[in-house]
Design a protein that fits this description.
three-stranded antiparallel sheet; 16 helices; disordered N terminus; alpha+beta; five-stranded antiparallel sheet; single chain
């Protein structure tokens, strides 16, 4: 007979599959090559993979060079000096920064990053993980012009409310687990449940409850909802929180494991507000990894120092007033019960102490998380992030082309839909990974390379391996390698 825990429905977050291929390129190439029966074909396939990568890298080199040249003018560290050396007018600088943002957003899209929407952020913030403080952005310290101007020229769907101040790009989904005693957190949850019971009994629940105003547009695929175990798990990630566990003073001393979905990669883009003396032109690009969804506030720019919320102060005052009234009422009774007075005072003082000490502990946790985000979770910033993105685009494009060509080589002619399905099945069957394969982009690149064509009814087919290598031809990198080898022999 299943236990209560097994029967209990899980809290999950419903997500779309990502287009990024989560397989290292060397592992992908070697594994696919080993699936080819004849050694001669295997050698031709490995040569083709190298030529595809060299060609794709050459295609993007000019675009990436322009991106890096433009960023050098808006680097927060040295960009101001370079702009001064150029002697550019304000209008010319505006044009250049918009060109940089255009290149940047193109690279982000090619690297399968998506702009986080308000609905996705609502889902992320609907739960708590390690960060239990309300974190807000000091908007007065952020520029509100440069991104607003970009989106006026390049409109996007489902832009978040803060899109004029900063943009959060996200990609990939993972899981973060933390096992600990969580002693104070358990006590906090137990006291919160007891406080909620008191509010229900005294009918003060409506005074303290704060229901957020629902947004008019809601994507059902990004909804924080509860589903049964029997439903498909591919698009669902479970969230395990203290608030949903059966807690008691008995299991206060036992370790537990909490779990939260993570954004595998997050990139934040923003500009600081200009002062009256100096016009700020630097554009910040910061790159983070493995950020728990419920703790996503740690990547926000220009965060305000956390403090007790107005609601906490209201709870303080109401608790004190209710306790004072109850004590006075007990004293005025003909037979004052000291135990009742003691219980009331203990409850009120205990709750006020709980608010204060919980805040202090959360502040310490917040400081640790911020420190960790700076040293452990921040991958890079500025130029380093852009270089990483450029290489990431090339790796993804190469993997898409190799997988598509391999399927056509092994399976023969295929429609676009069949090719898409077979590529996803190959990734799942051979590597145990799941992704939403971007077949349109892959086929477009294969046609540009000239190694895939369409027949009269629209089915795609590829040329032979040897012919594919002849069509692409000897690359510059291969000539350089031959020259190096020749000089080494000599």
């Amino acid at each position: 007979m299943p236990t209560v825990e097994e029967k209990k429905k899980k809290e999950v977050i419903r997500l779309e599959r990502e287009s990024v291929i989560p397989i290292l390129k060397p592992k992908l190439i070697v594994h696919l090559a080993n699936l080819i029966e004849h050694s001669s074909d295997r050698a031709e396939f490995l040569k083709l993979c190298k030529r595809v990568e060299y060609t794709i890298r050459a295609w993007y080199m000019l675009q990436f060079e322009d991106l890096m040249q433009l960023y050098s003018l808006f680097d927060p560290v040295h960009g101001t000096q370079k702009l001064e050396q150029q002697n550019l007018s304000s209008d010319e600088i505006d044009i250049l920064e918009q060109n940089f943002l255009t290149y940047l957003f193109q690279v982000m899209e090619k690297s399968n990053f998506k702009i986080a929407t308000d609905d996705e952020l609502d889902v992320a913030h609907s739960g708590q993980y390690l960060l239990n403080l309300p974190i807000t952005v000091d908007e007065s310290k952020l520029d509100k012009k440069v991104l607003k101007k970009y989106f006026e020229v390049h409109p996007h769907e489902n832009l978040p409310d803060f899109a004029d101040k900063y943009i959060i790009f996200r990609r990939g989904i993972g899981i973060d687990k933390t096992t600990d005693y969580f002693f104070m957190e358990k006590v906090d949850v137990i006291i919160s449940h007891f406080w909620a019971w008191i509010l229900r009994v005294t009918r003060l629940e409506k005074v303290f409850s704060r229901k957020p105003t629902p947004r008019q547009k809601k994507d059902p695929k990004k909804d924080d909802e509860t589903i049964s175990e029997e439903e498909d798990d591919e698009l669902y990630v479970e969230r395990i929180r203290l608030e949903n566990m059966e807690l008691s003073f008995r299991n206060l001393r036992s370790k537990i494991t909490i779990q939260e979905p993570t954004f595998d990669r997050i990139i934040v883009v923003y500009r600081r507000a200009s002062s009256r003396v100096n016009a700020e032109r630097g554009i910040y690009v910061k790159h983070f990894k493995n950020i728990p969804m419920a703790d996503m506030e740690i990547v926000l720019p220009e965060k305000k120092n956390p403090s007790l919320t107005p609601m906490d102060w209201v709870k303080f005052l109401i608790s004190a007033v209710v306790g004072l009234v109850a004590v006075v009422g007990s004293v005025e009774m003909p037979k004052a019960d000291l135990w009742v007075m003691f219980a009331i005072l203990s409850t009120v003082i205990g709750y006020c102490a709980k608010i204060y000490f919980t805040f202090q502990q959360n502040m310490a946790t917040y400081q640790n998380l911020i420190t960790q985000s700076m040293y452990d979770k921040q991958l890079d910033s500025g130029k380093g992030t852009l270089l990483h993105l450029c290489d990431d685009v090339i790796q993804q494009e190469v993997k898409e082309i190799i997988i598509s060509f391999f399927i056509l080589m092994e399976q023969g002619k295929a429609t676009l839909e069949d090719l898409d399905q077979q590529c996803e099945e190959l990734i799942q069957d051979e590597f145990g990974e799941s992704c939403n394969f971007d077949v349109d982009d892959a086929v477009n690149k294969l046609e540009r390379l000239g190694i895939v064509s369409r027949d009269s009814i629209g089915r795609y087919y590829c040329v032979g391996l040897k012919r594919a290598n002849e069509i692409i031809g000897t690359t510059t990198e291969e000539l350089v390698l031959k020259a190096k080898q020749g000089s080494a022999v000599a």
